[in-house]
Write a structure and sequence with these properties.
It is a single chain. Helices cover 33% and strands 23% of the residues. It has 335 residues and is an alpha/beta fold. Strands 1-7-6-4-5 form a five-stranded mixed β-sheet, sandwiched between helices. A four-stranded mixed β-sheet has the order 8-13-12-11, with helices on both faces. A two-stranded antiparallel sheet has the order 2-3. Helix 3 (53-68) crosses helix 4 (92-99) and helix 8 (227-248) runs parallel beside helix 9 (266-275). Bound molecules: oxa(dethia)-CoA. Oxa(dethia)-CoA binds next to helix 2, helix 6 and helix 8.
Length: 335
Amino acid sequence: MYNSKIKGLGYYVPDNVVTNDDLSKLMDTNDAWIQERTGIQERRHVVKGEDTTTSMGVKAARIAIERAGINKDEIDFIVFATLSPDYYFPGPGVLVQRDLGLPTVGAIDVRNQCSGFIYGLSVADQFVKTGMYKNVLVIGSELHSHGLDMTTRGRGVSVIFGDGAGAAVISREEDNSKGILSTHLHSEGQHAEELSLLAPGMGSRWVTDIIEENDPNDESYYPYMNGQFVFKNAVVRFSEVIVEGLQKNGLKKEDIDLLVPHQANLRISQFIQKKFGLSDDQVFNNIMKYGNTTAASIPIALTEAWEKGKIKEGDLVVLAAFGSGFTWGSAIIRW
Ligand code: UT7
């Protein structure tokens, strides 16, 4: 068995900033409500036609590959996590292979919503640890804004989500004391419909256009979230899966140097922070700037934390996510 580590990180968000005040011009909401309930101040929305889920992922990937110090031709495999693919099929993994001009390496798509990046990281980790691949590109990217209900009817969901992408190169590590120590994955399909999008036939077309042409009153094209139910499950599962990861490695909460939680809601992060007795410096949040970017949120946050020098060699970094499915997971990393 080999060790695997995160060798390079990158992220990309569209330039277009949408503030809470901008949203309050479209629907009955306000900055105070959004900040108080979620911590979000602004998010990024793609300007129609300027980016896709794949193009954002590719931009993030180019940065991650460069920082990994490898040539793109050394990528052995692609893992792409998203709930907002360009096409219903094929998934964006193969589009990345094409757009980056990679050799004909394998590509898979991960459909685990907010936990997508951790699931993808786990897949990459297994391939590298077994020796099958040396460098795996993992991307999380989401274009939410083209499918949100920007009216008062959809305000409980649409104020939360933002667009963006993050990427990581997972590589073989010779030093046994470093790298991804373990990953932990769970699901509970019993609650599948509590945070879901049930309408078929999504894809590269803007959902808002499809609805306009068909039935503007058809809510099934928009995501649904039972917010309070999801919140209550999230805080329990986040805690469980962090403890599971620590225990698996004989570690305690005091050993955590940095927790990077999926950016679902600042209140969830704060709850977890308090529960684990962590200081503000030990938990990285950027939901204030980007909203909830689902599969992209952890790689964007991890990249920003790394860029800001918040992760040092030897640090114990914990990633944790919970979301639609329900699915949840954690990764325990010795940097
Ligand atoms: O990333 C995947 C996992 N997702 C999560 O973990 C999200 C978990 N859930 C949440 O973060 C929270 O439940 C929300 C932020 C989504 C909602 O916060 P809440 O405190 O649970 O609010 P609520 O849905 O219970 O709504 C409270 C009130 C309602 O009005 P009434 O019935 O009390 O008159 C809503 O209609 O707030 C109203 N409301 C809004 N008001 C202004 C809902 N959305 C908005 C809005 N602006 N955007």
